[in-house]
Write a structure and sequence with these properties.
By secondary structure, the protein is of the alpha/beta class. It contains eight helices and eight strands. 37% of the residues lie in helices and 21% in strands. Bound molecules: pyridoxal-5'-phosphate (PLP).
Length: 219
């Protein structure tokens, strides 16, 4: 099956209420075009440079998502390009987003990335650091939190399910609190290997790379 067919198949399999994001990191514009032709309009990258390179060359009606670790000195390059940043994971990054977007008189939509598996190697916020971040978000003028994102550890289905449940519960509880600048609209969880389980556990946004474009080869 080619890229076009894979997108068509995925779109037919996942509920209409779930957003399918095509993770196009390391992929060429030609490969992305195949996905676009099949109706893909949400694309995600994990490197700022890759968004900067692709943005002017690709269709202007797509929504770009940033899903990688974001360095503070690169935030300025994302203004006016990204639709949603999935990887807010620390206060220093929040401060920089606030500063860069405030200066330009714009607002930025972000998700808080939760490191639910507590893996040292992974990015994302630990639960014990969440309240401090939420406090600061509430005083921001330019940063709007729209939900949560998580990347879970590699594990069996039962354990995955539990991680997804935990994040969904957190999302539900934050929704109920109605905090300033914080709304729970997006729950971004699930990738090629676990998107089905993630959707069953309440995800409304899945990020699929290899399941669309085939195996990634890093040069
Ligand atoms: C690469 C990546 C994905 C996609 O992973 P696949 O296994 O190729 O589907 C999803 N989310 C993040 C944050 C990624 O970096």
């Amino acid at each position: 099956m080619g890229i076009y067919e894979k997108v068509i198949k995925l779109k037919s399999e996942i509920p209409e209420s779930v957003t399918l994001i095509s993770v196009s990191k390391t992929r060429s514009l030609e490969e992305m075009e195949e996905a676009y032709k099949a109706g893909a309009r949400d694309f995600a990258e994990n490197k700022v440079q890759e968004i900067r390179d692709k943005f002017p060359e690709f269709h202007q009606d797509v929504r770009w998502h940033f899903i990688g670790h974001l360095q503070r000195n690169k935030v300025k390059y994302l203004v006016d390009k990204v639709y949603l940043i999935h990887s807010l994971d620390r206060i220093s990054l929040l401060e920089e987003l606030e500063k860069q977007y405030e200066t330009k008189g714009k607002t930025v939509n972000v998700l808080i990335e939760i490191n639910i598996g507590r893996e040292g190697s992974k990015t994302g916020l630990l639960l014990e650091d969440l309240e401090e971040l939420l406090d600061r978000v509430q005083t921001c003028r330019s940063v709007k939190v729209k939900g949560l994102m998580t990347i879970i550890p590699k594990c069996d289905e039962k354990t995955s399910r539990n991680y997804f449940k935990e994040v969904k519960n957190l999302w539900d509880s934050l929704k109920e609190r109605n905090l300033n600048n914080i709304s729970m609209e997006v729950l971004s969880m699930g990738m090629t290997n676990d998107y089905k389980v993630a959707i069953e556990e309440g995800s409304n946004t899945v990020r699929v790379g290899e399941g669309i474009f085939g195996k990634r080869e890093y040069k």
